[in-house]
Structure formats: C-alpha cells, structure tokens
Design a protein that fits this description.
Blueprint lengths: L10 H10 L2 E10 L2 E8 L1 E3 L4 E7 L4 H7 L2 E13 L1 H4 L12 E16 L2 H15 L14 H6 L3 E16 L6 H14 L4 H14 L2
Antiparallel strand pairs: 1-2, 1-5, 3-4, 4-7, 5-6, 6-7
C-alpha cells in the first residue's frame, strides 16, 4: 500500500479505527493454486498483547496457504467515498479536466500466524471473541471442551493467533490540498450527503485541523 507522508495515520488514529471496525480480510503470503487466499472474517485485536485472534472453518483453504508460509496481512478498510473531479481540481485548474480521487481509511496488520488446534486453546479464543461481539445480556455460555455440544463442534474449526510485526495505516483525506481547498471539499460532501460522505467529511475536517 502506498502511503504518502500527508496520508499516514498515527498510532492513535489507526487504533481508533480498530476500536470501531473488527471485520476485515485475511490475506495469505502462501499460495493455493498459484494465488494468495483472501478470507473475509471477524477478528479480535489485542493491543496489549500485540496480536490478532480469530477462527475459521477447518475446510478453509487459508490453512494450506498458512502452512506454506505463515506470514499474513489482516486488512481493514473504512469510511470511503468518491471525490468528484471538479471538486478535486486545484485552484486555477479548469474543473472540466480535474482529476477525481477516493478518500478512505486503510489499516493493514502484518504478522506471523500460528494455527491453534488444541481444544482448550480454541475454546479460549472463541470465549474472547464472544465476549467482544455478543451483546450485553447474551445467554451464550462460555465455550468449553468439557461441554458436550462444544466438544462436538470444536473439531470443525481451527484457531488462528497472529503475532503482529508491523502496522501500515493510511487515512487519505486530501492531505495534499490546502486547508481552504479541503474546506471546500468538506462543503461539497455535506451537500451531496451520500453513502460514506459524512464519515469521510469528519476525517477530512479533523485532519485539516491537525495537519494544515
């Protein structure tokens, strides 16, 4: 992923993203039939431990790819929108030949994956995910290999623990434009008010004050 200096997200920014977005794509370095495996999945990010936890069905082709090469990327994308050509045209440029662009947030968690097959360890991963995703008052009991129904179902999944080695994060919201130009684009987004516009506008205005 290309990250210009004006688009680079700070640690505080990308961690804020992960507090609100816990669904992404697991991308393998190992190949299956000549291609990386890309798996849409919920995940649990543990900042203190510097790791990501998740589970997948045992037939998933990701396991074959991870066996070939344990390096993976967990990619998250959020708050994207399209910026029209005329809006993005620089001062003094004919809007009819303006260059459109996309605004978006992207976080890529890179690390080394360890497969978890021990029933008790898998149950622990599931318990942590349930604690994160289930609503308050959920009646779902904590998974346990000693529970008959859980013991029957645990063989059908494998756990995955990703020890993070680096994070690449980007918030592309007009950082290469003048503050005045960003304000104009923010106004256009408010007027259009289409899908993703409000969230993108919020990032644009926030980053405009941080990085004039």
């Amino acid at each position: 992923m290309l990250i210009h200096p004006w688009d680079e997200a700070s640690r505080a920014e990308w961690q804020a993203v992960l507090r609100h977005h816990d669904f992404g794509q697991l991308v393998t370095a190992g190949l299956v039939e000549g291609f990386p495996v890309v798996v849409p999945t919920h995940f649990l990010y543990d900042d203190e431990a510097g790791e990501v936890l998740l589970h997948l069905a045992r037939p998933n082709p990701a396991w074959q790819a991870i066996e070939a090469d344990p390096h993976v990327v967990l990619a998250v994308h959020a708050d994207w929108t399209y910026v029209e050509a005329a809006w993005n045209a620089n001062e003094g440029t004919d809007p009819e030949v303006g260059v459109p662009t996309s605004y978006y947030t992207a976080v890529q968690l890179r690390g080394r994956a360890t497969v978890v097959d021990d029933p008790a360890e898998k149950a622990t991963i599931l318990a942590r995910q349930l604690a994160h995703f289930e609503p308050v008052g959920s009646t779902r009991r904590e998974p346990s290999p000693d529970e008959e129904s859980d013991r029957r179902q645990l063989p059908g999944i494998r756990g995955l623990r990703i020890s993070l080695t680096s994070v690449r994060a980007k918030q592309k919201y007009g950082g290469n434009k003048t503050p005045e130009h960003r304000e104009r684009i923010a106004g256009r987004l408010a007027e259009r008010n289409g899908p993703g516009d409000e969230a993108a506008r919020g990032h644009l205005l926030r980053r405009n004050t941080l990085r004039p």
